[in-house]
Design brief:
heterodimer; A: mainly alpha; two-stranded parallel ribbon; two-stranded parallel sheet; 11 helices; 39% helix; B: mainly beta; Lipocalin; 2 domains; 4-stranded antiparallel sheet; 1 helix; 22 strands; 2% helix
Chain lengths: 322, 287
């Protein structure tokens, strides 16, 4: 099995996960009502994990190009009542790909080839992301800081030891050389089970949730105070809601009750080289909308009623894409 | 004993491929070759004023995603051999002349022979690992097959070769012969990670599952002499010098095998806290 054509699931699912973190952070930052924010998240997640779509993603095929991937995530992001302007979509695209670039510790063997594919995908991308700069993950030039000290990966021995063997395979002597590093024994391997801790890696965690202290699942038991808290997990809505949520995709944009979400409005402008102006027509949903008649009128136009009549059109659309 | 040359900035970033650095000495000039995605960079480290050479190999009209580029000595010259996803490209040593493009098939298909190893529908074959063997060029593939291709300068004859071919082979040296398949073999059904020349017609093969094997050319084929089972970590790079075979692994280990008179594991070094990504052995010249 040639691993060069099996990198797409990692590329798509990791990028999709990072996109959800970013959107979730912006929904909270812009104080979008919790029920609408939850609907946006659930809409996107349901589309992203749609059975047919996932089956297509897992078929052997080359990685998507950057342009093609942006198109997929743009449609994904707009598969809800949320709308992103071009500027926000550009920044989101750059940021989530940069988040993917931090996925550097992937188990060896066949996955090493997939890792090389993903590294090639993000090669020469040096867009600075403010949270990376603050956390010291990225330098001012946009280069990533790779830790050379700390625990070695699982199944790796700490450097320095040399073992000598004879022709019979017997260990005859050992010696040590100064490796000059600051290594520690490997930590216990992580688990794919979402319940237990530790995960064994910081990859895939929601940096925004940790920074904002929003994750309430931090284990404060003795000895675990310094562990990286687990991310918040999306609550499953169940398959019965999936089709209804997917039906939202077929609503014409003009008839669909939507709101615009500004990404990185106050977050990344300072870290970017050029300021991007937000269009004046963008609506910011505020809790106290009664003071703005126009906003009040728009809020009254919002509707959460699912359009059951679109189910058949959705299925026809899915069939046509296969 | 040690002299550092002037640092040469590369015009493009280096790809994160293992063994992504090849060295060639011609007279008092030293050249380095580094791959960047689908492009090659050749710089002369002993002449900072020389402009870097950029080459863009292609297979089937499409840029070749490079896995490895290496200078390989034949009987009379050096060839620049570039492996990648979908094919192998042969250049003159300075990339000035394109000599041959060998297209690999798809995984599982019935294609083979002149087209290279068999492949399969929808899954691109990948070539990685380049080494010289008796004046010819060995290239590893993701199916575990190793192709032995002609270098255009004839080849060293070994016991068992057909005597009638001797004069013809040694005198038949031209660019048209470059890249023509002599034979192929497969010891393991796992992707080849690295190849290394061990001298005296011997070739070492390292696999992504961690196995290492050594064989010797016999006529128009190769005989496996020795093999070691996997330690559980993938081989990432191989090098050989002074009768020793060095193998780097993704686990950070470096294992040293003695080749003569008996092949065995002589030493195991816990060399790095991360994967070994490159090896270069410069010995005394003794075998």
């Amino acid at each position: 099995m040639v691993m060069v054509d099996h990198g797409l699931p990692l590329q798509f699912l990791n990028l999709g996960g990072e996109m959800l973190y970013i959107i979730d952070q912006r929904l909270r930052a812009q104080e979008v009502p919790p029920d609408r924010a939850a609907k946006v998240r659930n809409d996107i997640l349901s589309i992203m994990l749609n059975r047919r779509f996932i089956e297509e993603v897992f078929k052997p095929q080359p990685l998507y190009s950057r342009a093609a991937l942006r198109g997929v995530f743009e449609r994904l992001a707009h598969g809800s009542i949320m709308r992103l302007n071009a500027v926000s979509m550009d920044k989101s695209d750059q940021a989530l790909v940069l988040f993917l670039k931090t996925y550097i510790d992937i188990p060896e063997g066949d996955l090493a080839e997939i890792r090389r594919l993903l590294l090639e995908f993000v090669q020469d991308l040096n867009t600075r992301v403010s949270i990376f700069l603050r956390e010291g993950i990225q330098t001012a030039e946009g280069r990533f800081v790779l830790p050379v000290a700390g625990p070695v990966p699982p199944n790796t021995e700490m450097p320095g030891l040399i073992r000598y063997f004879d022709s019979a395979g017997e260990l005859t002597s050992t010696s040590y050389f100064p490796h000059g590093g600051d290594f520690q024994p490997p930590e216990s391997p992580g688990s794919l089970d979402p319940s237990p801790r530790p995960r064994g890696t910081n990859l895939g965690i929601n940096l925004y949730a940790i920074r904002d202290g929003l994750d309430s699942e931090v284990d404060s038991s003795p000895g675990r105070e310094n562990e990286t808290p687990e991310p918040s997990y999306m609550r499953e809505e169940g398959q019965s809601v999936e089709l209804n949520l997917l039906a939202q995709l077929l609503k014409p944009a003009s008839a669909q009750a939507t709101f615009r979400l500004n990404l990185f409005l106050n977050e990344d402008d300072a870290a970017d080289d050029g300021a991007d102006d937000e269009p004046d027509e963008v609506v910011h949903v505020k809790p106290d909308a009664s003071r703005a008649p126009e906003l009040q009128q728009l809020l009254q136009q919002f509707s959460l009623e699912e359009n059951q009549d679109q189910d058949m059109d959705l299925l026809e659309l899915l069939d046509s894409t296969n | 004993m040690y002299a550092r040359h002037t640092t040469q900035p590369l015009p493009l970033s280096a790809s994160a491929q293992p063994s992504n650095l090849s060295r060639l000495s011609i007279g008092d000039q030293v050249f380095m070759c580094v791959a960047h995605k689908t492009q090659l960079m050749i710089v002369c480290v002993t002449d900072p004023t020389a402009s870097p050479i950029i080459a863009s190999p292609s297979v089937g009209g499409k840029p070749l995603p490079i896995t490895q580029a290496r200078w390989v000595p034949t009987l009379k010259r050096h060839l620049l051999v570039v492996t990648g996803r979908g094919g192998v490209v042969f250049y003159s040593w300075d990339a000035a002349s394109l000599l041959k493009v060998v297209t690999l098939g798809e995984e599982g298909s019935s294609a083979g022979g002149e087209e290279g190893p068999a492949g399969g529908a929808g899954s691109t074959l990948l070539a990685r690992g380049v080494a010289s063997i008796d004046g010819q060029v060995a290239v590893g593939t993701s199916t575990g097959e190793v192709l032995v291709l002609r270098g255009g300068d004839g080849r060293i004859l070994r016991p068992g070769d057909d005597d009638d071919e001797e004069d013809e082979e040694l005198s038949h040296a031209c660019d048209d012969d470059v890249g023509v398949e002599s034979f192929r073999f497969r010891w393991r059904p796992y992707a080849v990670a690295a190849l290394a020349t061990c001298g005296d017609g011997r070739l070492a093969v390292g696999y992504v599952r961690g196995h290492v094997a050594v064989g010797r050319c016999r006529g128009n084929g190769i005989e496996k002499l020795w093999e070691v089972e996997s330690y559980g970590s993938a081989v990432s790079c191989l090098a050989s010098s002074d009768g020793l075979l060095l193998a780097g692994f993704l686990s950070g280990h470096l294992r040293v095998y003695q080749l003569q008179p008996k092949t065995f594991l002589a030493a195991e070094v816990c060399a790095h806290g991360r994967a070994v990504t490159g090896l270069d052995a410069v010995g005394t010249g003794d075998e």
